[in-house]
From TrEMBL:
Domain of life: Eukaryota
One Gene Ontology term, aspect cellular component: apoplast
EC number: 1.10.3.2
Stated name of the protein: Laccase
Organism annotation: Gossypium barbadense (Sea Island cotton)
Length: 566
């Protein structure tokens, strides 16, 4: 039954993609020159590693199912990689990008060309560096337009605008996390938050710039919102205007309207806004959300939604956003998100109970380990099922594909916590042993997979945006407290669950996801709060080859960057 279901799933996917390929599949080429440039914000000049001298970096703009080649030239001082966040890269993990997972870093003075293979993604994604904290300044939008003969499943916008939300640090992002890891402590907070590289008018420096979006009265605009922040979930609003969500993570959703959004690090949202108010200037604003005891700085960063021919000051200086700790606002927003059965989406194909061959229950935690050289005698680590991930020095994909390297990883990631406890209770004086290792999950091609992601109160608690490379998955369930495997599955939404690549796991709650493992390769899974990922809140999913060439990993390109010492 499992093989039969896998073949049906594969055939349905091939049929959908074949239909797309009849009308598109153009090839595009981009050149990324990555080097240091100076930027002045908050009355201070900082040197950052950026792409093509811009912050944020250049936008990639293509159509669904196109192929994109990006030649990345490292003109900086240290190695890095680039990830194409949310692109599934069917059979092509070689260009997925996470450092020491699917490739080794592009060294200074060298270049590497990524081949980005689009399939059914539609809407807004993004690209970013995937080495240490370099993504803080090396990132940009990846816009996927409908094919020429396809319309939007909502009113056609008159124009679109990318909105990238960012964490601004006065300093080198890599050095910030390197120093924190050496000391065993949490990295420092950002100096500001930014919208499209502008920190707005709330930080006290008279030279700071504010992002302005110019609009025409009575026109409809599609906002392409990307949370590229390092560690902050954000509320977003435009004063006196309503926001209609139409897509998340490059998949259309059932439309719903709010006066604010909640978007987590790694996530993207497509949002319609009508310029239907009195002609004038209105604040656009973000502030962080937190349900953790390790809260971010509660700053509000502003932009301006400006009608053409408007004069004078702001029409509505009052910014209405939920409080930073408003968990009801967080839950109320997340509860609205549903899939939509439109022809522009792939058909909803949620694995049924009988299809699930691998079940994982994963407890998410922040822990401490002894450290003689650290400031406090311990160091912060993070874990999934009490395993704190250790990045190898040879990439896992190369070791797995070549089968001639031992000691790089082990295939024994625990599918359940080694100790069950009251995950969401008071854990002030509670601790469980944590082991470090490079332990991965291995599944067969085509089988159904279910993962229950359980937030815990270990450490500071709070929410976690969990991202899985190589897949969009169905977010089928969520609930408060500890997951009950006898009663909670009956609450799953198997009819219209959102199809996402990054899921918000709220504090003191659980989330369940399902997908068919129809993309052979080595795929990183991690928290998109970068301090947590740096501490080891990561694992790897390996999907074995199927029985045919079309269900197997493609051969590697001959130009893959060499690993240090090889």
């Amino acid at each position: 039954m499992g093989l039969q279901q896998g073949l049906v799933t594969w055939f349905a996917g091939v049929l959908f993609l074949s239909t797309l390929l009849l009308s598109c599949a153009d090839v595009h080429h981009y050149e990324f020159f990555v080097r240091e440039s100076n930027f002045t914000k908050l009355c201070n000049t900082t040197t950052l590693l950026v792409v093509n001298d811009s912050y944020p970096g250049p936008q990639i703009r293509v159509h669904r199912c196109d192929t994109v080649f990006v030649n990345v030239h490292n003109q900086g001082n240290y190695g890095f990689t680039i990830h194409w966040h949310g692109v599934k890269q069917p059979r092509n993990p070689w260009s997925d990008g996470p450092e020491f997972i699917t490739q080794c870093p592009i060294q200074p003075g060298t270049n590497f060309t990524y081949e980005i293979v689009l399939s059914d993604e539609i809407g807004t994604l993004w690209w970013h560096a995937h080495s240490d904290w370099t993504r803080g300044s090396v990132h940009g939008a990846f816009i996927i337009l409908p094919p020429e003969n396809e319309t939007y499943p909502f009113p056609t916008p008159d124009a679109d605008q990318t909105i990238i939300l960012e964490s601004w640090y006065d300093g080198d992002y890599k050095q910030i996390i390197d120093d924190a890891l050496a000391a065993g402590v949490s990295p420092r907070q950002p100096n500001a938050y930014a919208i499209n590289g502008h920190v707005g008018d709330t930080y006290g420096c008279p030279n700071d710039t504010i992002f302005r979006m110019l609009v025409d009265s009575e026109k409809i605009y599609l906002l392409r919102i990307i949370n590229a922040a390092m560690n902050e979930h954000f509320f977003f609003t435009i004063a006196n205007h309503t926001l209609t969500v139409v897509a998340q993570d490059a998949s259309y959703v059932r439309r719903f309207t709010r006066d604010y959004l909640l978007i987590s690090p790694g996530q993207t949202m497509d949002v319609l806004v009508s310029a239907n108010r009195n002609v004038g200037q209105y604040y656009m604003a973000i502030r962080p959300f937190s349900d953790s005891s390790a809260a971010p700085v509660d700053n509000i960063t502003t932009g301006i939604f400006q009608y053409t021919n408007s004069e004078g000051g702001l029409n509505a200086s009052l910014i209405t956003l939920p409080a930073m700790t408003d968990t009801d606002a967080m839950i109320n927003f997340l509860d609205q998100i549903r899939n939509t059965n439109v022809s522009q989406n792939p058909g909803i194909n949620v694995p049924a109970d009988k299809d699930i061959k691998t079940r994982a229950f994963i407890a998410i935690a922040v822990n401490n380990l002894p450290c003689n050289t650290c400031v406090l005698g311990t160091r912060l680590v993070a874990s999934l099922n009490n395993v704190s991930f250790v990045s190898p020095r040879i990439d896992i994909l190369q070791a797995y594909y070549n089968r001639n390297m031992s000691g790089v990883f082990t295939e024994d990631f625990p599918l359940n916590p080694p100790v069950f406890y009251n995950f969401t209770g008071d854990l002030t004086n509670f601790n469980t042993p944590v082991a470090e290792g490079t332990r991965v999950i291995v599944v067969n091609y085509g089988e159904g997979v279910e993962m229950v992601l359980q937030a815990t109160q270990m450490g500071a608690g709070g929410s976690h945006p969990i991202h899985l490379h190589g897949f969009s998955f169905y977010w089928v369930g969520t609930g408060f407290g500890n997951f009950n495997n006898e009663t909670d599955p009956s609450t799953y939404n198997l009819v219209d669950p959102p199809l996402v690549n990054t899921v918000h796991v709220p504090g003191r709650r659980w989330v369940a996801i399902r997908f068919f493992a129809t993309n052979p390769g080595v795929w990183f899974m991690h928290c998109h709060l970068d301090r947590h990922s740096s501490w080891g809140m990561d694992t790897v999913l390996i999907v074995r080859n199927g029985r045919t060439e079309e269900t197997s990993i493609r051969p590697p390109p001959s130009t893959m960057p060499r690993c240090p010492g090889t």
